[in-house]
Design goal:
The complex is a heterodimer of chains A (380) and B (398). Chain A has 380 residues and is of the alpha+beta class. Chain A is built from eleven helices and ten strands. Chain A folds into three domains: 113 residues, Butyryl-Coa Dehydrogenase, subunit A, domain 1; 106 residues, Butyryl-CoA Dehydrogenase, subunit A, domain 2 (Beta Barrel); 146 residues, Butyryl-CoA Dehydrogenase, subunit A, domain 3, CATH 1.20.140. In chain A, strands 1-4-5-8 form a four-stranded mixed sheet, with helices on one face. Chain A has a four-stranded antiparallel sheet with strand order 2-3-7-6, with no helix packed on it. In chain A, helix 5 packs antiparallel against helix 6. The radius of gyration of chain A is 21 Å and the shape is globular. Chain B has three domains: 83 residues, no CATH class; 108 residues, Butyryl-CoA Dehydrogenase, subunit A, domain 2, CATH 2.40.110.10; 146 residues, Butyryl-CoA Dehydrogenase, subunit A, domain 3. Chain B contains twelve helices and ten strands. In chain B, the strands form three sheets. Chain B has a four-stranded mixed sheet with strand order 1-4-5-8. The longest helix of chain B is centred in the C-terminal third of the chain and has 29 residues. The interface between A and B is large, with 49 and 49 residues. Bound molecules: flavin-adenine dinucleotide (2 copies). One flavin-adenine dinucleotide (FAD) sits at the interface of chains B and A.
């Protein structure tokens, strides 16, 4: 049993930490968020130049086949900086789907760009009615000629507004909630019939809904076997969940540090408010929520790239359930312990709170993962 | 024990309902029900209608334009008005400074200020909190020095709700530094247009501008604007706070918000079925509805005690804590109900004038922002921790 990072892993994390500290002050983050892109083009480039967007990929793509722990190291630091770049969407989820489901040609076509950061991928798996069930796919892909015609709508595609490639799920057969019959397609956002309704997100990033109206794609847009994408989606969103958990840990660490610092500084009734036992105990609870969450994020990271199994499914569901609850707890209690200042735009705490609560709306909320876990409970 | 309204009270409720049906503007009701943005003009329009009906200042003495509703009547009004989508009254003038002026002000002050509150000429804001004086309000530092017939005020107030719309501010200021903190505070009425006053916005986490910082630099305030006696302001301030607290439980608003939540949950789907039929989500809603049921009876018990001649005491602190927790729980569920659509921040859909397609549900857009914004409920009006301190001291004797 060893919970320490290897020397290489530690170096990786330090590299990202240094970069974030240098480039991503809270004030700059607000500016990045206000731009049309919604993040820093320059910072994204640097992630590419330093080989960070290549971390999960093989050597020939400039990476070193980094697994869950390496991804965790990167995502935790991006979380600390509240970084807005589409690292999780493009590198982990998009890159992961392409690596797992793409054939040689597709990988050759897309992965070098993903690994260098030059090609930004967004992934549209949800639909307006699907809530968090990714097997609920109404979008249709019908065979037409050599290729397919896509019709439907994908909901809340984070990073979709600026993506060079959007991977969407669509149904090639089966009923609306069948796992069987779901396929994945690589769609060029500028193709005819693709429309995007772009919006800012409440946590400072940007996303869009993607409308597919008779979008014609070639046969080679199909990623993986027709109708068999559910497994790929489940596996790769599992990796993305582990990444979100790591990001949340970075946010929670920073949030707790801010709160603790404030309890020591802020004086009322002639003493630092940290002298009030009710705030002390709450801070202790926030810390132990973070530690519970950290344990689960570590566990999730260790399963992220493991072979699929019920144990992996359970672990990732459990991790996301714990992270969602801890994130909300730390956000709400942290604001409360700050008093009015915790509610203001110009102070960073609220932005951590918003990101943490929104993480709970990505890839399944607390109840979704509790139900998923319950459905996978071991008999004894 | 009789938990039913009397025949007169029922008749009053019918009258209230008929009035709301006839007079409440549909656009304002739609805004309130959908948690859409309310403008100053909306508030003023509704105020005018209420004043005409004689119900705006219902708790004032009749000679100044009140109707002296009983606490039960007031309660009926709050519940019905919220249910119909009547916007919450901006309390600073009619419900806060007015009771203080009525109880402690001079006859001239009553004659001057009260009509202007009714006719909307004065829009008030509350200048209590300061950067260094939040929970510990008595440590406030804004200084007022008397010079013959006026005070010179210097200092800063903060968190001033809707101060950007206000032309009057009631302030707690320090007039004596030689005595115990609570004994050197005075209650001043200040015209916001006086030279030396600067208002700066504070933007909240949801991007809204509802609070402000107010700076005072050598602001000249006539001595006639002092309420009651110099250095006795703390007593008046506390009188006002008990008034503020009773309303803060927001039972009527919670009922309206719960019904809004159920609407949302009956339209949003999970696995093809309305969330309202989903076992775990419906239980979450049921739980908060049960808690609200209990709180609403607690509220009635306090009202009945007041009707019997009591004063709302520390019990209203308990109710403030419960009431705000319940409202926050409802907001939490509304955010959850819209699932992934909590993430988009679609500001244009928060306005009633929006005529485009809604991204998801027509009521979805304000939900996440509302959840974040209402973290304030457990902070302002005396934080929930402070309320619990009051209960443990005043009721439990700890
Ligand atoms: C089943 C059982 C087995 C035990 N076995 C052993 C044993 O083997 N050996 C042994 O030596 N002792 C043993 N104990 C005693 C145990 O350690 C004490 O009960 C414990 O230390 C609490 O002391 P107390 O019961 O006097 O409660 P008190 O100390 O009087 O506390 C009463 C309450 O006040 C709270 N409180 C006290 N001080 C503070 C503070 N500063 N801030 C906030 N809250 C405070 C406590 O948390 C508690 O809720 C045992 C007790 C039990 C119930
Ligand atoms: C949206 C909003 C609108 C507002 N509108 C107005 C307005 O119009 N006019 C106005 O005057 N003020 C207004 N306020 C200010 C509000 O009354 C204060 O925010 C509140 O009194 C808390 O003060 P603070 O923010 O300085 O927090 P602090 O007093 O610094 O409190 C920080 C934390 O410490 C806790 N704490 C402090 N003392 C104790 C204690 N003794 N025991 C245990 N815990 C303690 C608090 O509960 C809180 O959790 C508003 C605030 C907000 C957020």
């Amino acid at each position: 049993m060893d919970f320490t990072l290897s020397e290489e892993q530690q170096m990786l994390q330090d590299t990202v930490a240094r970069l974030v500290r240098g480039e991503y002050s809270f004030e700059k983050r607000l500016e990045f968020s206000e731009t049309e892109l919604g993040f820093s083009e320059d910072f994204w480039k640097q992630l590419g130049e330093l080989g960070l967007t290549a971390v999960p990929f093989d050597e020939e793509l400039g990476g070193f086949g980094g697994g869950g722990v390496e991804i965790q190291s990167v995502m935790t630091e991006l979380g600390r900086g509240l970084c807005l770049e589409p690292f999780m969407q493009s590198v982990i989820l998009g890159g992961g789907i392409l690596s797992q489901a793409g054939n040689k040609d597709q990988q050759d076509k897309y992965l070098p760009g993903v690994a260098s950061g030059e090609l930004k991928v967004a992934v549209g798996l949800q639909e307006p009615q699907s809530y968090y069930n990714l097997n609920e796919v109404e979008t249709k892909a019908e065979k037409s000629g050599e290729g397919y015609t896509l019709n439907g709508r994908k909901a809340v595609v984070i990073g979709g507004h600026c993506a060079d490639l959007i991977i969407v799920s669509a149904r090639t057969s089966g009923d609306v909630r069948d796992a069987d019959g779901i396929s994945l397609f690589a769609v060029d956002p500028s193709a005819e019939g693709v429309e995007r309704r772009t919006y800012p997100t409440i946590d400072g990033a940007k996303g869009c809904d993607v409308f597919l109206n008779n979008v014609k794609v070639d046969a080679d847009a199909l990623l993986g076997e027709e109708g068999k994408a559910a497994e790929v989606i489940e596996y790769q969103t599992g990796r993305a969940i582990a990444a979100l958990c790591a990001e949340a840990i970075g946010c929670m660490e920073e949030a707790n540090e801010l709160t603790l610092e404030y309890l020591k500084q802020r004086k009322q009734f002639g003493v630092p408010i940290g002298k009030f036992q009710v705030l002390q105990h709450r801070m202790v609870d926030m810390m132990s929520e973070l530690e519970q969450a950290r344990s689960m994020a570590i566990l999730a990271a260790s399963f992220a790239d493991a072979e699929q199994s019920d144990e992996r499914r359970r672990t990732l569901a459990a991790a996301k359930n714990v992270i969602n609850r801890a994130g909300q707890f730390i956000s709400e209690k942290g604001i409360q312990s700050h008093g009015g200042i915790g509610m203001t735009w110009e102070y960073s705490f609220a932005h951590y709170a918003k990101r943490l609560v929104m993480i709970s709306h990505q890839l399944g909320d607390e109840d979704f993962h509790l139900e998923r876990y319950a459905s996978l409970l071991e008999a004894s | 024990m009789n938990m039913n309204y009397t025949a007169e009270e029922l008749a009053f409720r019918d009258e209230v309902r008929a009035f709301l049906e006839e007079k409440l503007p549909a656009d304002i009701a739609a805004k309130a029900k959908g948690f859409r943005k309310m403008t100053k003009e909306d508030h003023q329009r509704w105020q005018k209608i209420l004043v005409e009906q004689g119900w705006y200042a219902s708790h004032w003495p009749e000679e100044y334009g009140g109707v002296k509703w009983t606490p039960v009547q007031k309660h009926i009004w709050d519940e019905e008005s919220s249910a119909y989508g009547g916007p919450r009254t901006v309390p600073f003038g009619v419900n806060m400074v007015a009771p203080v002026i009525i109880k402690f002000g001079t006859e001239e002050q009553k004659q001057y200020y009260l009509p202007k509150i009714l006719n909307g000429e004065h829009w008030w804001c509350q200048g209590y909190s300061e950067p260094g004086a939040g929970s510990d309000l008595a440590s406030l530092k804004t200084r007022a020095v008397r010079e013959v017939d006026h005070y010179i005020v210097n200092g800063q107030k903060t968190w001033t709700t809707l101060g950007q719309h206000a032309n009057m501010i009631f302030c707690l200021v320090r007039t004596n530094t030689e005595v115990k903190a609570q004994e050197g505070i005075s209650f001043l009425l200040i015209d916001m247009n006086t030279p030396g006053i600067t208002v700066r916005p504070i933007i909240t986490l949801d991007g809204e501008h509802e609070v402000n910082e107010v700076f005072f630099e050598d602001v000249k305030v006539p001595v006639e604007n002092l309420v009651g006696e110099e250095d006795k302001g703390w007593t008046y301030a506390k009188y006002l706070l008990t008034y503020e607290r009773t309303g803060l439980a927001g039972i009527g608003i919670s009922k309206a918000a719960l019904s809004h939540l159920k609407g949302l949950a009956s339209r949003r789907l999970k696995n093809g079925k309305p969330l309202l039929q989903d076992p775990s989500f419906s239980q979450r809603i049921a739980q908060v509805e049960i808690d609200l049921m209990a709180a609403s009876i607690s509220n009635l018990r306090i009202i009945a005690a007041v009707e019997g001649g009591g004063v709302p005491g520390a019990e209203s602190s308990m109710l403030k804590v419960k009431g705000t927790e319940i409202r926050q729980a409802i907001n939490d569920l509304a955010r959850r109900a819209i699932g992934p659509y909590a993430i988009p921040f679609v500001e244009e859909e928060m306005s009633l004038d929006y005529e485009g397609e809604f991204l998801s549900d027509e009521n979805a857009a304000p939900m996440a922002a509302q959840y974040f914004n209402n973290r304030k409920l457990s902070i302002f009006g005396g934080s929930n921790e402070i309320q619990k301190n009051i209960v443990s001291k005043m009721i439990l004797g700890l």
